[in-house]
Amino acid sequence: MSRLFMFEKPLGMRDTLPELFDRKRVVRASIEKEMERWGYRFIETPTLEYYETVGSASAILDQQLFKLLDQQGHTLVLRPDMTTPIARIAASRLLKKDMPIRLAYAANVFRAQQKEGGSPAEFEQIGVECIGDYTISADAEVIALIISSLQEAGLEDFKLSVGHIGFAHKFFLKILGTEERVEALTRFLFEKNYVGYREHVKGLALSSIDKQRLLDFLKLRGGIEIIELAVSLLENEEGKEDILQLHQLFEMMGDYGLEEKVKFDLTLVSHMSYYTGILFEVYAGKVGFPIASGGRYDQLLQKFGKQAGATGFAIRIDRLLEALGDDIESSAVSCILFSPERRKEAFQHAQELRRSGKKVVLQDINGVKDIDNCTNQYEDITFLVGNAGRETEI
């Protein structure tokens, strides 16, 4: 092995050391329990999928896919997201069951990095998919669930922004006329480059009225009051139904008692091209990127030969941990230090403590070079050293 690569990892890959692993496990477990309480059942999919199915159907750019060949010459990919593999399963094996289907997952996904920029190429997502339901009630359910899940994980300081990709696309297409021009303009929104958006609009060959409508589009961020402003920007009825869906969603969030958690941002767009309707992102104060996102994708299952409405979300565990900071408490570990003549006694005592639910480390005192350093690692130390009756707890 070359010494140059002895301790190196592939671009974007990270090690997870015990402390971080414990924090991830605690957060994951709290969210999993909440999802199960809402009736979602967990599922696993293969790490490897065929490029011709999941790889090409996913909304991830081709250059971000990890590709390899199997022994038969088929191109495989490391799964780049979880929504597409679950859509494959639903279309092939589950849609014969009673619908809607409520599925959940916790899994690592893989997206290749072109250059080192601090972004991981492998990261864990936990999320849900509600498949077979076209109603706004399903959208309200997953939004209420993501709020509840984040709160169960210990996060209170976050903002949830809701948009509608269908409205944005129809609005732009009506004014700009071609998909290419729509894509060029929405790229500024995806990058949150509002200065670039304004400059791009000013340079378009459009009437002053249409330019002003595009500039006023940036004002569509806030509370329920922006619904009326959005309707006023429409040239005809096209897109009005999408706005009414958002109004209906807001009323449903009120029924959940969560209307204060929801803000609208109709400038919200996504690089995930399979979204068709309501979509949302969650931001927390300490993190510069969305810690979670989701939305409706009614056309994805068509790529697997089925027709079904669907909506869901994914939470980025690494970003959630960053938002939580040091607020996660992991259960403490105790240590029993023993000498050889009291080994059996130490083993039996450790078993009793473990059966009661405690975490216990057994350590032969002859293997400890620095007692002070050892004791600092644990909540408490029990010494079983020398003759029986000399145990000391500190």
TrEMBL record:
One of its GO terms (molecular function) is histidine-tRNA ligase activity. GO terms for cellular component: cytoplasm. Gene3D superfamilies: 3.40.50.12590, Bira Bifunctional Protein, Domain 2. The keyword rRNA processing does not apply. Pfam families: HisZ-like (PF21996), tRNA-synt_His (PF13393). Pathway: Amino-acid biosynthesis; L-histidine biosynthesis; L-histidine from 5-phospho-alpha-D-ribose 1-diphosphate: step 1/9. One of its GO terms (biological process) is L-histidine biosynthetic process. Transmembrane segments: none annotated. Its main location: cytoplasm. Residues 27-340 form the Aminoacyl-transfer RNA synthetases class-II family profile domain. PROSITE patterns: AA_TRNA_LIGASE_II (PS50862). It comes from the Bacteria. It is found in: Cytoplasm. Keywords: Amino-acid biosynthesis, Cytoplasm, Glycosyltransferase, Histidine biosynthesis, Transferase. This function is generally fulfilled by the C-terminal part of HisG, which is missing in some bacteria such as this one. Required for the first step of histidine biosynthesis. May allow the feedback regulation of ATP phosphoribosyltransferase activity by histidine. Belongs to the class-II aminoacyl-tRNA synthetase family. HisZ subfamily. This is ATP phosphoribosyltransferase regulatory subunit.
